[in-house]
Amino acid sequence: MSEAAKKEPMAPRAVRHSFTLTDNETGDSYELPILHGNIGPRVIDIRKLYAEAGIFTYDPGFTSTAACTSDITYIDGDAGVLLHRGYPIEELAENSDYMDVCYLLLHGDLPSPEEKSEFDENITQRTMLHEQLVRFYSGFKRSAHPMAIMVGVVGALSAFYHDSTDINDPMQRMNAANRLIAKMPTIAAYAYKYSLGQPFPYPDNKLDYASNLLRMLFSVPTEEYEVNPVIARALDKILILHADHEQNASTSTVRLAGSSGANPFACIAAGIASLWGPSHGGANEAVLNMLEEIGTKENIPQFVKRAQDPNDSFRLMGFGHRVYKNYDPRAKVMQKTCHEVLNELGTSDPLLDIAMELERLALEDSYFIDKKLYPNVDFYSGITLRAIGFPDNMFTSLFAIGRTVGWIAHWKEMMSSAESKIGRPRQLYKGEVARQFTAVANREHTSRKISWAWLWGGQSNNER
Ligand code: SDX
Question: Does the Cβ of 145 fall within 6 Å of ligand 1?
């Protein structure tokens, strides 16, 4: 990409403010520029710190580190605010559709009617999978987790679409973006159909994005399938709620993978892998498992107690957040959507009663109040998705469908920024300093603390 085409780096304002760092071990002081965003915390620009002071900063989990500049999403965790390109998530969820939000995240503004219809059509025309890629599925066990299939199939897209892997060509970047947004529902739906042993339905270009997903998931060739518009609207809203969320673990994974120049399909496959973790996108499935383990409202107090026991690994899944120290605004919309879906389907779910009672008790409990632990987006999504008909192991795949546009928007932003360079964190080294090599014949036997069998997992050599 030409240098001119890259967005100019965010040059620090004329250095009006700086942060003085004094090293009381050496007595040296360093002036570090303070950078200002349009909103949110200021940052200390430490890019020259190591060169000037020979010292690293230390921040496992990046709790206090801004890894990049971005215009896409802003979160005020204390106030429970989430903005996409300046629009509050509540307004987008209520008033727009997922394609609108995709356009907004990718291009920075809500589309005009003409832009929207062109974008929708562009996505609709790319929903099919290459027939050879469909054969990829038959290599998996039927019991394979859908996320395992999605990581494999999305990564394999780079073997099929060589006209959208040149990361330096903005046109090819846009092609890759549209292809990924278009194909994720098909890829996820086929993973579900494969687990059932049912045929893979082709996408239907007459349907909108969420309706197409429902039909590919739940239709069978032997019967007419009619999309319930209320359920389709609820699913579209759920996709909006999951579309983007600043520099979360999976988005940071995509950015780091992309910083090496990896092709966009490989980067999104990396994001899917990261999202799968139960502390991140896997939490929605974990919430249902937790609610089932709790079983009844009477059992809730003992689980709320367990969640506070530092010696108990039990956590209230769907509670707490690295950034939100107030109610996750998405959780409120998700709770409302959950009631809408259950009312439309005329069903109730005892797990919802347990979830609401758990929320009530937790929000009154001093431990959760003191640690500012509130329900997050995952707390109600599982109940909603199960009511719609998703099996539990498809919840995170749905999260991945929604989040694909966020991952791509951040990847595109990074690729067009003159600031971007290969990500390469350093470390605080605590290992051996320098040891003399000893030939194996001269090494004494020491009783290792770990058994080698544990290391090898005790697997027989005929493991399949
Ligand atoms: C998502 O980053 C994103 O934006 C993610 C996401 C997105 O859209 O991309 O919002 C999606 O991942 C939502 C989060 C889903 N995960 C869960 O619901 C899993 C349960 N939550 C926890 O694992 C935890 O809250 C995290 C992982 C979400 C956040 O953990 P942090 O920020 O690292 O905080 P922490 O683990 O250091 O917790 C701070 C304190 C600890 O106690 P102390 O060590 O201070 O005594 O709060 C406690 C924790 O023990 N704590 C909890 C808790 N979460 C934190 N205690 C009980 N139950 C919980 N859920």
Answer: no
Nearest CA among 127, 134, 119 for reference residue 207: 127
- On the question of pLDDT at 457 being above 50, the answer is yes
Distance CA 264, CA 268 (A): 6
Q: What is the pLDDT of residue 2?
A: 46
Catalytic residue selected from 242, 244, 378, 410: 378
283 lines ligand 1 (CB under 6 A): yes
Residue corresponding to tokens 């304002």: 13
Whose CA is closest to 396, among 180, 179, 145? 145
- 85-99, 242-256, 316-330: the lowest-pLDDT one: 316-330
Atom in ligand 1 nearest the alpha carbon of residue 246: 4
Q: Is the pTM of this model over 0.85?
A: yes
From the CB of 321, is ligand 1 less than 6 Å away?
yes
244 catalytic per annotation: no
Residue pLDDT, tens place only, 197-247:
999 999 999 999 999 999 999 999 999 999 999 999 999 999 999 999 999
Which ranges in 83-169 belong to alpha helices (H)? 89-95, 98-107, 113-124, 131-135, 146-156
* Continuous H helices in 131-282: 131-135, 146-156, 170-196, 209-218, 229-241, 249-259, 264-275
280 is catalytic: no
Under 8 Å CB-to-CB from 295, ≥6 apart: which residues? 354
Any atom of ligand 1 within 6 Å of the Cβ of 317 = yes
In the block, residue with structure tokens 């780091």: 256
Which residue of the set 321, 328, 349, 410 is catalytic? 321
Q: What is the mean pLDDT of the chain?
A: 92
Closest atom of ligand 1 to CA, residue 244: 8
